[in-house]
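Posting for a labmate who doesn't have an account.
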Amino acid sequence: MRKLWTYIVSFWFWIEMFGSSIILFPVAIVIWLVTMPFDSRRYYLHQFSCTWSNIAFWLNPLWRLKVSGKEKIDKKGTYIIVSNHQSGADILVLFTLQIHFKWVAKRALFFVPFLGWNMAMNRYIALRRGKKSSMHKMMERSKKDLLNGNSMMIFPEGTRSRDGRLQPFKSGAFHLALETHIPILPIIITGTSEAIRKGGYLISKQHNLRVQILDPIPYEDFRRMEPKELAEVVYKKIETVLA
């Protein structure tokens, strides 16, 4: 009976996700067309995308989300936001913060109907894993966006964890922080690895998800570090809280 209920919950989740996407995507197109002449940062479209995610959570009341530390974010500030990555649910969770940022995401996601198309309209940054040319292009676009006042959302692990444990950090985000003098905002997500497991489609029922925002790290605190050293410092900050 429990297994049957899991299938029912999972079926409902994916139906409401794609059903709401079919309804909301035309609204995103209208916002994109109306604001494109004066909103080069795609601020208004991104805010709608955040609302879109909140609607998805509202339609799935079995997931309870708790956010702490949001008062530490200066909404007028620019950050390189780094978070651990446990599952596909992390994207929904981070959108609910309702703060402006650009995603760095794998290129395949941009081809997902409605959701991926909305990512492209938002001018999020696509990355092909393992291709140096794609990494170089991502770094250049990220620097440009950061200097234009757009925060960047990056998963420094590079991919989702299979068991919820923190994986080693790649140094790209920390190169950006050192080159642009932008502060780093660490974020910790817990609970999503059980909500949707990597490579699976079954949804956990009645699950608690949590987002914890740590203190921003100003440039002055890391300006003399090397990227790998900085990556290790931020890794330990997140690992200590996760432990």
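Reply:
Got it, the structure tokens are right above this. The chain has one domain: 2-242.
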